[in-house]
Amino acid sequence: MGLAINAYRQSASVSDLTGRVIASRQIPRIAQSDPESTLQKLSEVARELVAEAGVPESTLLAVGVACVGQVDRTGRWIATSPDLGWNDVAVADLVGADLGLPVFVDSMQNALNETERKFGKGGGMQNTLLVSVALGIGASCIVDGNLLRGRQPVVATMGHMPVNGIGHGCNCGRKGCLATVASGFAVLRMLGLVEEYAAPGPHDAALVPMLTALIERSRDDEAVSSAFRTAGHYLGQALKSAVTVTSPDAILLWGPVAQVDTYRAGIEDALRPNSSDPFGWDGEIVVSETPLDHAAARLALDRFAFCTRPKPKRN
Q1: Which residue, 114, 149, 178, 298, shows the most beta carbons closer than 10 Å to its own?
Q2: 3 state SS for the chain
Q3: 37's torsion region: left (phi>0), alpha (psi -120 to 50) or beta?
Q4: Cα–Cα distance for residue pair 144/127, rounded to 1 Å
Protein backbone atom coordinates (compact mmCIF):
# COMPACT_ATOMS: atom_id res chain seq x y z
CA MET A 1 0.00 0.00 0.00
CA GLY A 2 1.24 3.52 -0.77
CA LEU A 3 0.22 6.76 0.91
CA ALA A 4 1.34 10.12 -0.50
CA ILE A 5 1.17 13.41 1.37
CA ASN A 6 2.17 16.70 -0.19
CA ALA A 7 1.25 20.30 0.42
CA TYR A 8 -2.02 20.35 -1.52
CA ARG A 9 -3.39 16.84 -1.92
CA GLN A 10 -3.06 13.30 -0.68
CA SER A 11 -3.37 10.00 -2.53
CA ALA A 12 -3.37 6.28 -1.91
CA SER A 13 -2.60 3.23 -4.02
CA VAL A 14 -2.24 -0.54 -3.86
CA SER A 15 0.32 -2.49 -5.91
CA ASP A 16 1.08 -6.14 -6.46
CA LEU A 17 4.49 -7.68 -5.80
CA THR A 18 5.79 -6.67 -9.23
CA GLY A 19 5.18 -2.98 -8.50
CA ARG A 20 2.15 -2.83 -10.83
CA VAL A 21 -0.41 -0.47 -9.30
CA ILE A 22 -3.85 -2.08 -9.32
CA ALA A 23 -5.82 0.70 -7.62
CA SER A 24 -5.20 4.37 -6.93
CA ARG A 25 -7.15 7.37 -5.68
CA GLN A 26 -6.41 11.09 -5.51
CA ILE A 27 -7.76 12.91 -2.49
CA PRO A 28 -8.25 16.68 -2.30
CA ARG A 29 -6.33 18.30 0.53
CA ILE A 30 -7.74 16.97 3.79
CA ALA A 31 -9.10 19.85 5.85
CA GLN A 32 -7.82 18.73 9.25
CA SER A 33 -4.86 20.83 10.32
CA ASP A 34 -3.39 18.33 12.79
CA PRO A 35 -1.33 15.41 11.47
CA GLU A 36 -3.13 12.79 13.55
CA SER A 37 -6.51 13.57 11.94
CA THR A 38 -5.00 13.80 8.47
CA LEU A 39 -3.24 10.44 8.76
CA GLN A 40 -6.33 8.79 10.24
CA LYS A 41 -8.49 10.04 7.37
CA LEU A 42 -5.92 8.93 4.81
CA SER A 43 -5.80 5.47 6.38
CA GLU A 44 -9.60 5.25 6.17
CA VAL A 45 -9.51 6.11 2.47
CA ALA A 46 -6.79 3.50 1.93
CA ARG A 47 -8.96 0.82 3.56
CA GLU A 48 -11.87 1.80 1.30
CA LEU A 49 -9.62 1.58 -1.75
CA VAL A 50 -8.43 -1.90 -0.78
CA ALA A 51 -12.02 -3.08 -0.31
CA GLU A 52 -13.14 -1.61 -3.64
CA ALA A 53 -10.20 -3.24 -5.41
CA GLY A 54 -11.21 -6.64 -3.99
CA VAL A 55 -7.88 -7.13 -2.25
CA PRO A 56 -8.15 -9.24 0.94
CA GLU A 57 -6.64 -7.31 3.84
CA SER A 58 -4.88 -10.49 4.93
CA THR A 59 -2.70 -10.27 1.82
CA LEU A 60 -1.43 -6.76 2.50
CA LEU A 61 2.28 -6.74 3.24
CA ALA A 62 3.24 -3.23 4.26
CA VAL A 63 2.74 0.50 3.77
CA GLY A 64 5.07 3.04 2.22
CA VAL A 65 4.49 6.72 3.01
CA ALA A 66 5.99 9.42 0.78
CA CYS A 67 5.69 12.81 2.43
CA VAL A 68 6.82 16.35 1.69
CA GLY A 69 9.44 17.41 4.23
CA GLN A 70 12.44 15.99 6.05
CA VAL A 71 12.31 12.41 7.32
CA ASP A 72 14.50 11.00 10.05
CA ARG A 73 17.02 8.26 9.19
CA THR A 74 14.91 5.49 10.74
CA GLY A 75 12.09 5.99 8.23
CA ARG A 76 9.52 6.51 10.97
CA TRP A 77 9.28 10.24 11.74
CA ILE A 78 8.64 13.43 9.84
CA ALA A 79 11.28 15.67 11.40
CA THR A 80 9.89 18.84 9.86
CA SER A 81 7.58 19.75 7.00
CA PRO A 82 7.20 23.52 6.64
CA ASP A 83 4.73 23.12 3.78
CA LEU A 84 2.42 21.07 6.03
CA GLY A 85 3.25 22.84 9.28
CA TRP A 86 4.26 19.47 10.82
CA ASN A 87 7.17 18.91 13.20
CA ASP A 88 8.29 15.69 14.93
CA VAL A 89 5.34 13.57 13.76
CA ALA A 90 5.54 9.80 14.38
CA VAL A 91 3.99 8.93 11.01
CA ALA A 92 4.93 5.23 11.00
CA ASP A 93 3.48 4.66 14.46
CA LEU A 94 0.24 6.51 13.68
CA VAL A 95 -0.35 4.85 10.30
CA GLY A 96 0.77 1.47 11.61
CA ALA A 97 -1.72 1.67 14.47
CA ASP A 98 -4.55 2.52 12.04
CA LEU A 99 -3.76 -0.13 9.43
CA GLY A 100 -2.04 -2.83 11.49
CA LEU A 101 0.88 -3.08 9.06
CA PRO A 102 4.60 -2.29 9.12
CA VAL A 103 5.28 1.19 7.72
CA PHE A 104 8.28 2.88 6.14
CA VAL A 105 8.35 6.65 5.64
CA ASP A 106 10.58 8.67 3.34
CA SER A 107 10.61 12.05 1.68
CA MET A 108 8.64 12.30 -1.53
CA GLN A 109 11.84 13.05 -3.44
CA ASN A 110 13.66 9.97 -2.12
CA ALA A 111 10.66 7.74 -2.88
CA LEU A 112 10.44 9.09 -6.43
CA ASN A 113 14.18 8.86 -7.05
CA GLU A 114 14.42 5.24 -5.95
CA THR A 115 11.25 4.34 -7.87
CA GLU A 116 12.56 5.84 -11.10
CA ARG A 117 15.92 4.12 -10.71
CA LYS A 118 14.45 0.67 -10.02
CA PHE A 119 11.12 0.71 -11.84
CA GLY A 120 11.11 3.64 -14.27
CA LYS A 121 13.03 6.17 -16.31
CA GLY A 122 16.17 5.93 -14.18
CA GLY A 123 16.73 2.62 -15.97
CA GLY A 124 18.99 1.07 -13.32
CA MET A 125 21.29 4.10 -13.18
CA GLN A 126 23.51 4.15 -10.10
CA ASN A 127 23.85 7.95 -9.86
CA THR A 128 20.77 10.15 -10.15
CA LEU A 129 19.77 13.60 -8.94
CA LEU A 130 16.01 14.13 -8.71
CA VAL A 131 14.59 17.62 -8.30
CA SER A 132 10.89 18.22 -7.66
CA VAL A 133 9.42 21.61 -8.49
CA ALA A 134 5.98 22.79 -7.48
CA LEU A 135 5.33 25.72 -5.15
CA GLY A 136 8.65 24.79 -3.55
CA ILE A 137 11.73 22.80 -4.54
CA GLY A 138 13.06 19.55 -3.11
CA ALA A 139 15.72 17.09 -4.19
CA SER A 140 17.13 13.59 -3.74
CA CYS A 141 20.55 12.27 -4.69
CA ILE A 142 21.59 8.66 -5.28
CA VAL A 143 25.34 7.99 -5.47
CA ASP A 144 26.67 4.54 -6.37
CA GLY A 145 23.21 3.08 -5.84
CA ASN A 146 22.77 4.52 -2.33
CA LEU A 147 20.61 7.41 -1.22
CA LEU A 148 22.66 10.33 0.03
CA ARG A 149 21.22 11.27 3.41
CA GLY A 150 24.10 13.00 5.18
CA ARG A 151 24.36 13.86 8.86
CA GLN A 152 20.91 15.43 8.78
CA PRO A 153 18.04 14.88 6.31
CA VAL A 154 18.74 18.10 4.43
CA VAL A 155 19.10 16.98 0.80
CA ALA A 156 15.35 17.42 0.29
CA THR A 157 15.68 21.11 1.16
CA MET A 158 17.55 22.12 -1.98
CA GLY A 159 15.05 24.93 -2.35
CA HIS A 160 16.64 26.60 0.65
CA MET A 161 20.13 26.78 -0.80
CA PRO A 162 21.37 30.38 -0.53
CA VAL A 163 21.66 32.28 -3.81
CA ASN A 164 24.23 35.05 -3.94
CA GLY A 165 22.75 38.51 -4.49
CA ILE A 166 19.14 37.45 -3.79
CA GLY A 167 17.28 38.96 -0.83
CA HIS A 168 13.67 37.83 -1.22
CA GLY A 169 11.97 36.46 1.90
CA CYS A 170 11.36 32.70 1.99
CA ASN A 171 8.67 30.74 3.79
CA CYS A 172 11.43 29.12 5.88
CA GLY A 173 12.11 32.49 7.50
CA ARG A 174 15.40 33.22 5.75
CA LYS A 175 16.19 35.48 2.80
CA GLY A 176 17.77 34.61 -0.52
CA CYS A 177 16.81 30.93 -0.81
CA LEU A 178 16.78 29.25 -4.23
CA ALA A 179 13.02 28.69 -3.94
CA THR A 180 12.42 32.45 -3.90
CA VAL A 181 13.65 32.69 -7.51
CA ALA A 182 13.34 29.18 -9.02
CA SER A 183 10.06 27.64 -7.76
CA GLY A 184 6.42 27.87 -8.72
CA PHE A 185 5.96 30.36 -5.90
CA ALA A 186 8.80 32.40 -7.40
CA VAL A 187 6.92 32.58 -10.72
CA LEU A 188 3.82 33.81 -8.90
CA ARG A 189 5.94 36.47 -7.21
CA MET A 190 7.66 37.54 -10.43
CA LEU A 191 4.26 38.17 -12.02
CA GLY A 192 3.06 40.22 -9.04
CA LEU A 193 0.43 37.71 -7.94
CA VAL A 194 1.87 37.18 -4.45
CA GLU A 195 4.16 39.04 -2.07
CA GLU A 196 7.38 37.55 -0.78
CA TYR A 197 7.21 36.02 2.70
CA ALA A 198 7.69 38.40 5.59
CA ALA A 199 7.56 35.59 8.17
CA PRO A 200 7.93 31.78 8.09
CA GLY A 201 4.88 29.67 7.34
CA PRO A 202 3.42 26.99 5.06
CA HIS A 203 2.31 27.81 1.53
CA ASP A 204 -1.39 28.69 1.30
CA ALA A 205 -3.33 25.92 -0.47
CA ALA A 206 -5.08 28.66 -2.50
CA LEU A 207 -1.80 29.18 -4.37
CA VAL A 208 -2.08 25.75 -6.01
CA PRO A 209 -4.93 26.61 -8.44
CA MET A 210 -3.18 29.91 -9.16
CA LEU A 211 -0.02 28.06 -10.16
CA THR A 212 -2.01 25.50 -12.17
CA ALA A 213 -3.67 28.31 -14.11
CA LEU A 214 -0.28 29.89 -14.84
CA ILE A 215 1.08 26.59 -16.13
CA GLU A 216 -1.83 26.46 -18.58
CA ARG A 217 -1.22 30.07 -19.65
CA SER A 218 2.49 29.46 -20.19
CA ARG A 219 1.78 27.98 -23.62
CA ASP A 220 0.32 31.21 -25.01
CA ASP A 221 1.24 34.08 -22.67
CA GLU A 222 4.70 35.49 -23.37
CA ALA A 223 5.07 37.18 -19.97
CA VAL A 224 4.15 33.98 -18.11
CA SER A 225 6.38 31.89 -20.36
CA SER A 226 9.28 34.28 -19.76
CA ALA A 227 8.82 34.11 -15.96
CA PHE A 228 9.01 30.30 -16.06
CA ARG A 229 12.14 30.49 -18.20
CA THR A 230 13.78 32.89 -15.75
CA ALA A 231 12.92 30.62 -12.81
CA GLY A 232 14.26 27.60 -14.69
CA HIS A 233 17.51 29.43 -15.41
CA TYR A 234 18.02 30.01 -11.69
CA LEU A 235 17.49 26.31 -11.00
CA GLY A 236 19.87 25.41 -13.81
CA GLN A 237 22.57 27.58 -12.27
CA ALA A 238 22.12 25.79 -8.94
CA LEU A 239 22.17 22.41 -10.68
CA LYS A 240 25.44 23.28 -12.38
CA SER A 241 27.03 23.46 -8.93
CA ALA A 242 25.24 20.31 -7.74
CA VAL A 243 26.30 18.13 -10.68
CA THR A 244 29.90 19.20 -10.23
CA VAL A 245 29.82 17.55 -6.81
CA THR A 246 27.52 14.58 -7.43
CA SER A 247 28.33 13.74 -11.11
CA PRO A 248 24.95 12.08 -11.82
CA ASP A 249 24.17 9.89 -14.82
CA ALA A 250 20.97 11.90 -15.22
CA ILE A 251 18.96 14.71 -13.66
CA LEU A 252 15.36 13.66 -13.05
CA LEU A 253 12.76 16.44 -12.93
CA TRP A 254 9.37 15.89 -11.30
CA GLY A 255 6.38 18.07 -10.47
CA PRO A 256 3.97 20.38 -12.28
CA VAL A 257 6.47 23.16 -12.90
CA ALA A 258 8.94 20.70 -14.44
CA GLN A 259 6.31 19.97 -17.10
CA VAL A 260 6.52 23.54 -18.46
CA ASP A 261 8.58 23.65 -21.66
CA THR A 262 10.08 27.09 -21.08
CA TYR A 263 11.03 26.21 -17.49
CA ARG A 264 13.03 23.23 -18.73
CA ALA A 265 14.49 25.40 -21.50
CA GLY A 266 15.76 27.79 -18.83
CA ILE A 267 17.41 24.90 -16.98
CA GLU A 268 19.03 23.56 -20.13
CA ASP A 269 20.28 27.01 -21.12
CA ALA A 270 21.97 27.50 -17.74
CA LEU A 271 23.63 24.07 -17.98
CA ARG A 272 25.12 24.67 -21.43
CA PRO A 273 28.75 25.74 -21.88
CA ASN A 274 29.27 29.49 -21.81
CA SER A 275 32.09 32.04 -21.68
CA SER A 276 32.77 31.41 -17.99
CA ASP A 277 32.19 27.64 -18.16
CA PRO A 278 33.43 26.11 -21.43
CA PHE A 279 32.43 22.59 -20.33
CA GLY A 280 28.89 22.93 -19.00
CA TRP A 281 26.98 19.71 -18.34
CA ASP A 282 25.96 17.38 -21.15
CA GLY A 283 24.21 14.66 -19.16
CA GLU A 284 20.64 13.51 -19.68
CA ILE A 285 17.64 15.42 -18.30
CA VAL A 286 14.62 13.16 -17.76
CA VAL A 287 11.10 14.28 -16.82
CA SER A 288 9.37 11.88 -14.44
CA GLU A 289 5.59 11.51 -14.50
CA THR A 290 5.34 8.85 -11.78
CA PRO A 291 2.42 9.56 -9.41
CA LEU A 292 3.62 10.02 -5.85
CA ASP A 293 1.34 7.32 -4.39
CA HIS A 294 2.75 4.82 -6.90
CA ALA A 295 6.24 5.67 -5.67
CA ALA A 296 5.07 5.21 -2.08
CA ALA A 297 3.68 1.73 -2.81
CA ARG A 298 6.93 0.72 -4.51
CA LEU A 299 8.83 2.12 -1.53
CA ALA A 300 7.02 -0.41 0.67
CA LEU A 301 7.72 -3.16 -1.88
CA ASP A 302 11.41 -2.31 -1.91
CA ARG A 303 11.75 -2.29 1.87
CA PHE A 304 9.54 -5.21 2.84
CA ALA A 305 9.41 -7.58 -0.15
CA PHE A 306 12.80 -7.12 -1.78
CA CYS A 307 14.26 -6.50 1.68
CA THR A 308 16.94 -4.06 0.55
CA ARG A 309 16.87 -2.58 4.07
CA PRO A 310 16.34 -4.22 7.50
CA LYS A 311 12.62 -4.69 8.11
CA PRO A 312 11.11 -2.74 11.05
CA LYS A 313 9.06 -4.85 13.41
CA ARG A 314 5.38 -5.30 12.59
CA ASN A 315 3.19 -2.88 14.56
Answers
A1: 298
A2: CEEEECCCEEEEEEECCCCCEEEEEEEECCCCCCHHHHHHHHHHHHHHHHHHCCCCHHHCCCEEEEECCEECCCCCCEEEECCCCEEEECHHHHHHHHHCCCEEEEEHHHHHHHHHHHHCCCCCCCCEEEEEECCCEEEEEEECCEECCCCCCCHHHHHHCECCCCCCECCCCCECECHHHHCHHHHHHHCCCCCCCCCCCCCCCCHHHHHHHHHHHCCCCHHHHHHHHHHHHHHHHHHHHHHHHHCCCEEEEECCHHHCHHHHHHHHHHHCCCCCCCCCCCCEEEECCCCHHHHHHHHHHHHHCCCCCCCCCCC
A3: alpha
A4: 6
From 23, 16, 97, select the one nearest 61 (Cα to Cα). 16
Is there a contact between 21 and 15 (Cβ–Cβ < 8 Å)? yes
What is the arithmetic mean of pLDDT over 287-294?
Answer: 93
Query: In this structure, which amino acid lies at residue 244?
Result: T
Report the pLDDT value the prediction gives residue 21, as an integer from 0 to 100: 92
Closest CA to 254 of 68, 1, 28: 68
